[in-house]
Amino acid sequence: MNTLYFDNNATTCVAPEVKEAILPFLEERYGNPSSPHHFGGSIEGDLSTARQKVAALIGASPKEIFFTSGGTESDNLAIRGVLSMDTTRKHIVTTAVEHSAVLVQCRELEKMGIDVTYLPVDSEGTLNLSDLEKSIRPDTALVSIMWANNETGVLFPIDEVSRICQDRGILLHVDGVQAVGKAPIDLTQTRIDLLAISGHKIHAPKGVGALYVRSGIKIKPLFWGGNQERGRRPGTEPVPMIVGFGKAAELALESIREDSGRMRLQRDTLERGILERIPDTIVNGGKDPRLPNTLSVCFDRVEGEALLMLMDQNGIVASSGSACLSHKLEPSHVLLAMGVGEETAQGAVRFGLSRYTSDEEIQQLLETMPALVDKVRSLTRRVGRS
User: pLDDT for 50-70, tens place per residue?
Assistant: First the structure.
């Protein structure tokens, strides 16, 4: 059975060029870059090259890039690192639709005496900027708002958010995990203080990411040890993954406009086809701006988990929302925040495309999905009558 992979918001395949770049560091070039001898120390140059490539992808300086284990660590390092620098400021502003790396962290911080404001979104999943302006207080330490929602693909107005934070003298942390590599980002034009990035969302290996820290911003590390990453993130660097991350960033920068344009056309074809062929279906956050690769829909009278299992049995890989919350049976907090009813939200499916998604795969998906949805709906009707 051919697998139709439409879960690229959860993770992407490792690009062939990335695998090729990694191999020497799994074989003959296995030294520790912190070692004083040439065998290890020469690898420091490869880390510098990777740092330059990641920086170039977002319009940053290499000295502003700190490698981490991924987006979750970067989000934690940003938020806790800022709070630790000034313990007199005990207020954070975020949104009700953030990734769990931010939301769960904020709930834990509340238990420690930090006050958190969760900004609402409208039915399209967008922010009201006046709510942000009203929420900022004298003791606000940080505003933390994602660039792109991981479930719906909705893009937040980060340029405007940045200007509000600048005017108020408040630091801005952005979870850029879904946006980086899919939407053009130039931090020479948009002032952000901290930006979280994850490698495995852009065809790099899992287990590597980065935190952009604007020059002049001070944060405390999450843990202590060696002087790697200039003391911000101690521990021996995972050289193969960092080199792969750098190569993936280079590829993304080279093809971002071409890839985005193609994925947008494919997503729109998929969206139109689903709405035409499957009645009682709604698109979540369907208005622009949104990521070019993401389509979130709710099939009415469908139990999403049952549909996803049936899709899996038929070689179609997708998800109901965040992979980090996939074992929870509750409806998506993102959709509930958008005003979607609990029963409708249970029928959510997220399709995520990548640069490797083909037009043929889109057509195969459209040919298969109507029968699968009909089957789940018929089973639901039978259970309801029994």
Answer: 999 999 999 999 999 999 999
Residues 224 and 305 in one domain: no
| Domain end marker among 251, 279, 298 | 251
- The contacts found for 89-92 with CB under 8 angstroms, 24 or more apart, are 89/139, 89/140, 89/141, 89/142, 90/114, 90/115, 90/139, 90/141, 91/115, 91/116, 91/117, 91/137, 91/139, 91/140, 91/141, 92/116, 92/117, 92/140, 92/141, 92/142, 92/143, 92/144
* Averaged pLDDT for residues 131-137: 98
Query: What's the pLDDT at 379?
Result: 87
| Longest alpha-carbon distance in the chain | 75
Q: Which two tokens stand for residue 183?
A: 């939407």
Please state, in angstroms and rounded to a whole number, the distance separating the CA atoms of residues 355 and 264: 11
Identify whether 324 is a catalytic site residue.
yes
Instruction: Read off the tokens for 67.
Output: 């490698």
Residue 323 is predicted with a pLDDT of 55
